[in-house]
Amino acid sequence: MASKTALIVDDEPDIRELLEITLGRMNIETRAAADVTQARKLLSEQSFDFCLTDMRLPDGNGIDLVKHITTEHPQVPVAMITAHGNMESAVEALKAGAFDFVSKPIHLELLRKLVDTALNLKPLDTARGGEPSAPTLLGDTEAMKLLRKQIAKLARSQAPIYISGESGSGKELVARSIHDLGPHRDAPFIPVNCGAIPSELMESEFFGHKKGSFTGAASDKEGLFQAANGGTLFLDEVADLPLPMQVKLLRAIQEKAVRAVGSQQELPVDVRILSATHKDLAKEVEKGTFRQDLYYRINVIELNVPSLRDRKADIPVLAEHLLAKIAKDYELPTPTIADDAMASLCDYSFPGNVRELENVLERAFTLCEDDIIKVEDLSLSPAAKIPTQAVMAQDDDDADEDDEGSAYNRPTPPTTLPEDADSLESYLEDIEKNVIVEALESTKWNKTAAAKKLGITFRALRYRLKKLGLE
Questions:
Q1: Which residues touch 36 (CB under 8 Å, ≥6 apart)?
Q2: Quick check: helix, strand or coil at residue 23?
Q3: What pLDDT, in 10s, does the model give residues 390-400?
Q4: Which of 167, 309, 310, 354 has the most other CB atoms within 10 Å of its CB?
């Protein structure tokens, strides 16, 4: 394999020598420049695989050089050396196009990881007619083409990215695509819902803890930052973080290090931070519920995910893909969508975005007959939006509502309600299982007869048997 070549730009001879020795031990050839002018000259004379530049230079600053390289040599990843604690310069460099930064005094382990990352960046994939590929993000509208291009470009950067968009629009899928197209694609992708962690356990969950550090800490535990080391940490619903945790998260991002609860030692971590929320984060800052300094750190680059109503032309291809996925999951034939049903889908506003489209199709999948989804199977009117968990409680349009044997027409009211959402879901599933088993036993496990007795389609019964683990 051909050796790699790096350009080092710093006006301090001692720093240049340290960097050349460090990279030389990594079998990387180096060329050095003391200012912007000399660096530009070297860039014009030969090709480089990587550039590392100081922020302050005698005839300009590193930001100018970053912008020049980004424009004139876009395939060369460039990292910035900043003064300790000067996050403003680091953020400015990332916005200018630098893929990462390292602070003085330079931590050699983090520097080596940074260089490895830079050298593992792959060229932009232009196999799709000049458009970078992000195969999991379907759609041929201009909005989706632009999103895929932005993702491919941002995947080459280590800059923190704030993914904005409505609930159900696919923000986590975008985050995964950024990770999968980046240099850390073989490293962990750790998603975490910030609103789902109890506040008293949050520090332990993020940074880990040592044995005996608090009551119940029976052993050492690795935190989310350590689990994501070398990869990506996706903070979903980041606006739900309590203010005390926001302070600790800010420090971890700035220092690139974490300290486990009960430990006196900080551990360096190489983690890319992606975050998202359906809330307006700028308004949360105005209200005082989200720290402004943290907002600026995680929102170095904002990437907006379009709503489904803004790309309605993508609905047919999304619908076909989702139906095929649902059918594969439940080992049933993939139904077709009637033309008028597809037209209804395309006319609908989908306030719940792609997630709502999937829920609508999942319900229609259980109700349709003859492997054809019709308009009446979609139930798109507001009054007919039924959660997936309640699908079985909905009579099929062709069922006899007076069937005395239909257990779903005569549900037994519960005597004691569960206290939380998780136990409620389990409680409802138990009721559903009991009703289905009773119908099957009464028909000697004849599924066709049981489906008729329940007032649902045979397809719907097979779907529920699979989902509830009753096969």
A1: 9, 57, 59, 60, 61, 64, 65, 68
A2: helix
A3: 333 333 333 33
A4: 354
Phi, psi of 31 (to 5 degrees): -125, 145
**pTM score, two decimals?**
0.71
Helix (H) or strand (E) holding 344: helix 339-347
- Which of 126, 119, 131 lies closest to 183 in space, CA to CA? 119
Which residues sit opposite 4 in a β-bridge?
28
| CA 173 and chain centroid, separation | 5
Distance in angstroms (rounded) separating the CA atoms of residues 302 and 56: 27
% of the chain residues with pLDDT over 90: 45
Question: From CA 284, how far away is CA 290, in angstroms rounded?
Answer: 5
Give the CA count within 13 Å in the CB-facing half-sphere of 169: 28
Amino acid 389: pLDDT: 37
Tokens 């960097």 sit at which residue? 19
Q: Which residues contact 23 (CB under 8 A, 6 or more apart)?
A: 6, 8, 30, 115
Candidates 466, 195, 460, 442; CA nearest to 451 is 460
Bond from prior residue into 413 cis (ω within 30 degrees of 0): no
Taking all residues of the chain, what is their mean pLDDT, rounded to a whole number? 83
Going from the C-alpha of 370 to that of each of 158, 333, 397, 457, 458, the distances in angstroms are: 50, 10, 14, 10, 10
